[in-house]
Every structure is written in structure tokens, then in C-alpha cells.
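User: Show me an example of a complex going from sequences to C-alpha cells.

Assistant: Sure. Here are the input components:
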Amino acid sequence: MPKRVDHTERRTEIAEALLRVAARRGLHAVGMRDVAAEAGVSLRLVQYYFETKEKLLLFGLQQLADRFGERVAARVRAAGDHPGPRAMIEAMLTAALPTDEDSRTFHLVYTSYAVLSVTDEVLAAQPFIANPDAAEGTLVALFRQAEESGLIRPGLDAHLEAVGLLAMSAGLGTSILVGQRSPESAAAVLKHQLDRIFQ
Amino acid sequence: MPKRVDHTERRTEIAEALLRVAARRGLHAVGMRDVAAEAGVSLRLVQYYFETKEKLLLFGLQQLADRFGERVAARVRAAGDHPGPRAMIEAMLTAALPTDEDSRTFHLVYTSYAVLSVTDEVLAAQPFIANPDAAEGTLVALFRQAEESGLIRPGLDAHLEAVGLLAMSAGLGTSILVGQRSPESAAAVLKHQLDRIFQ
DNA sequence: ACCAACGTGGTACGTTCGTATCACAAAGAG
DNA sequence: CTCTTTGTGATACGAACGTACCACGTTGGT
């Protein structure tokens, strides 16, 4: 049976299983055995490809961030061939809202990781600063571009707007997740905010 | 030794211990024995006053929400004798930001509960809808009041503004918690947003 | 003064967790 | 054709967890 196997691919499959279980039962309740069962492999294999649970969690977080990046990129591409800054910004912000099962998973698991990273030092590492910072940078650039095109009233602080919008989007996402708000009303709030900034 | 004891008071003490441990090591890592040690009582007593861990968690969440309500109320009172709507709104929103150790605890543990409530049905019960909804209602009322006093430009949607600001505050709080943003810059973002709404 | 209920301690039980160990089959290298 | 490496299974181990059980001193009611 033991053909030579691609480690990276196998690790990805197992990490995907981890994310599925985490989405279903919560990240705190995920055990090595659950991941193994979900991936359809033995416990030993999970141990083999990720020596320790911590490394599995780390890889899973990385994977989650990567997948989300692709999701946002796809959304932006779907916004059209030459989308204006407003359309791109709206696509980015609404992509982060938990509207379908995939984005629900992302939001829930990512938030779980964020909570873990506060008390677990080794998990606090890269992605919780790098990833949102990148989104912030992109948003700032889009605002600057919109400003030069005269689409928004001049003199507004691109950085403050970008940070505020991202925080608002994240907060709305959480309230959707816990069932307090509908995705539609959250999108309306974001749209309202953008309406005030643009034109 | 067994004097007749006030159950409510004892339960409160134990719940406070739970919150302290949760703040230090994360809610997911809290065990009954940890709570007992932190409260300075035996494991048996924790079992005695809360028969099960689930009930302890539920009570702890209630306690956390109560304490936060008091905190916000104190902040609003501290804003002055006859604070304008703007000052009250700003007090409410900044009270939710994790600036000191107490509010850090609140934000972290509350977020942990929120994450748990998504997958744990019994925990999803009351406070995650009731509490934010109350804040939303208060904010809406303040906006209406400000509108009637002519402090803000007419025709703005009080509900959309309230929801957006609360979400922004929550999102900023999380980014402070994970170390991405400083409390000062988060407060500046909120202030900027309020500046645009008022007058 | 007795008796039932209350408050408290100690400890044991069954389960689950992450990790380690042992064994072995298949495949590439020489 | 051997031999070392790689992949995989089964299982064992020690710790920690939530909970249950048993014993005992104290208190208030009658």
C-alpha cells in the first residue's frame, strides 16, 4: 500500500478535515481522533504528517487564511473586468460576511483562532497581524485611488476610513454568526456607510 | 465550620473566579479544578453550588454581561451631569474597547462565549441576542434625541448608524485584543466616525 | 435533646485526550 | 537481491477532565 506520497498534499487534506470539524463542533472541541476520522485516515497518520497538535493547528490557520484570500480575490474578480474602487471595496468587505456555509466556517474558525492566540503564545505568531494588515493596506490604496479620481469628497482620511470599515465588517460578521443580525441587514449597513463616503 | 451561607453570594464569588481564570488562560482551558483553586475552595464546593460545568458557564456569562452593563453605566455617569447625546454615545462605545485589564477580560471572555454559542446550543440562549439588542436600542434612542435637538444633519437613519457603530466598536475591540491596533488609534477611528455624523 | 437537612472534604470512577511505542508492509537504492 | 527508508496500523500510556459517591461535622427546627 505505501506508495510514495506527496506530503504537502496530504497535509492539506488533513488540515481541511480539521477545518470542517472545527466548523461543525467548534475549534475547542476538535481532537486528533476527530480529524483523523473526518479525513478518513488513522490517528497515526495525523500524527505522522503533523507531529504535534499545535503544528496541525498552526497549519490549519495558515490554510484558512490562504483560502480566504482566494475567496476575496475571486469575489473581486467577479465584480467585473474593470471594477471601480467602490465596487472592489464593497466586494472585499462583503466577502468577509458569513453569508454562506463557507464564509460562516471561515468567520467562526478564524475568530476561534483569534481567541486562542490571546492566551496561547505560539499561536499568536504571524497571521493575525499580517493578514488584516494586508487588507488594510489594500483598502487604503483603493481609497487613495478613488480620491485621485474625484469619486469621493477630498480631505478624508483614507487610513481612518479603511480601519473603520474593516472593523465594522468584522463586527457585523460576528453578529451574523451568533444569529443577531441577518446577512442582508449587515450588507445594508456597509452599503450605507460606503454611500456616505463615496460621491 | 458550616455556617449557613448565602448561596447567591457564593455562586458569584465562584463565577468571578471562573472569569479570572478564563481571562488568564482562555475559556477553553478552564476546568472545574482551576476554578476551585482560584476561588480558594475545594472542587466539591464548585460542584455543590453549580451542579454541572455547563451551569457554571451559563452563570459566568450572565455575570460577565451584568458587570459590563454596570461598567458602561459608570462610564456614562462619569461623562458628566448632563451629557449630550454625543458624549453618551462616545462613552458607551469606548467603554466596550479593551483598554484596561478589566475590559480586556470582558472582551476576550465574551468573544469566547460567542464562539462557543455557535456550536453549543444550550449556551446560545439569552444574552447574545438580548444584551447587544439593548445597547442597540439605547443608541437608536440617543440618535433620535440628537436629531430632534438638531445636533446632527436630518434624514440620517438612526438604526443604521447605531448598528454600524456598535459593529465597528466590537471589531476594533477585537483588533486591539489580538495586538493589531492600539487603543488610542481605535478610539480615534470611533471619534472620526462620530465627527462625521454629528453636525 | 434529637433528627433531618445543609455544607464541606476527600477520593474514586470512567472517559477522553495527546502522545509514544511496537510492528510491519511496500518501495527505491546499491 | 538485499537493505534502508518511508508509510501505515494497532495499541498502550499517563495525565486531566467532569462527575459521582461516601463520610462527617454543623446547624436549625421541634
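The lines above are the inputs; the final block is the predicted structure for all four components together. Chain A touches chain B through 47 residues (CB under 8 Å).
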